[in-house]
Write a sequence for this structure.
């Protein structure tokens, strides 16, 4: 095994940005990656850099509430087919987290591949909610394990990397499984979340604090939940 692979195999999956003496809750962020790659993420990793503004926004929004904030460290840049490496690393991070802080509620925030990993790892008992940012949601992705969770999927309608229609479909499958799930489409939004960046940050951060019970959901997300709860009688997708 190459030295880099051995190091990746033993490094913790959990990276903490803020701890708390008596944690009330945890927010874990997961960056994107590639469909296939066994290379470890580099220090100057663009998908990781893309999530830094979201990490800073979550840190500010949860300051003073005893909320632990951290990130998932991947061993590989890719999802890698049935291995689902990013999901495995997310589960490792959750196991490490529980050993550190005990059974406190967790919200996962993931972009692209990280959104797929967050949704997969939401089967863990301590996960109460997921915020997916332009998540990768293949049509055959399971959703039965999402029952009882609250799911917010944010997706730009000009995304050419992951399909916003698949986020809408995943939210519907999650509702069928017993989740409270909604999809919000950002007009003109792209995959890197550079267009309308302020809206991305506000909706994501407001969704996190809403899931944690620290404040109201953004109006757009509240409306999306209401549309979804109305069922087939109305369009379940909120557009902003």
């Amino acid at each position: 095994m190459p030295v880099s692979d051995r190091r990746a195999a033993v490094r913790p999956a959990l990276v903490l940005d803020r701890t708390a003496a008596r944690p009330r809750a945890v927010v874990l962020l997961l960056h994107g990656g590639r469909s296939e790659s066994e290379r470890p993420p580099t220090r100057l990793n663009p998908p990781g850099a893309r999530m830094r503004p979201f990490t800073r926004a979550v840190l500010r929004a949860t300051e003073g509430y005893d909320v632990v904030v951290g990130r998932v460290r991947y061993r590989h840049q890719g999802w890698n087919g049935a291995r689902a490496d990013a999901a495995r690393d997310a589960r490792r991070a959750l196991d490490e987290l529980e050993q550190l802080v005990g059974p406190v509620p967790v919200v996962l925030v993931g972009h692209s591949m990280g959104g797929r990993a967050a949704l997969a790892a939401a089967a863990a008992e301590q996960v109460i909610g997921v915020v997916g940012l332009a998540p990768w949601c293949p049509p055959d992705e399971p959703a039965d394990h999402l029952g009882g969770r609250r799911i917010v999927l944010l997706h730009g309608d000009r995304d050419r990397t992951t399909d916003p229609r698949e986020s809408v479909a995943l939210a519907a499958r999650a509702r069928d499984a017993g989740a409270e799930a909604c999809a919000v489409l950002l007009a003109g939004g792209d995959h890197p979340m550079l267009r309308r960046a302020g809206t991305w940050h506000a909706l994501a951060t407001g969704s996190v604090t809403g899931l944690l019970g620290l404040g109201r959901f953004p109006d757009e997300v509240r409306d999306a939940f209401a549309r979804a709860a109305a069922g087939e009688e109305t369009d379940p997708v909120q557009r902003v």
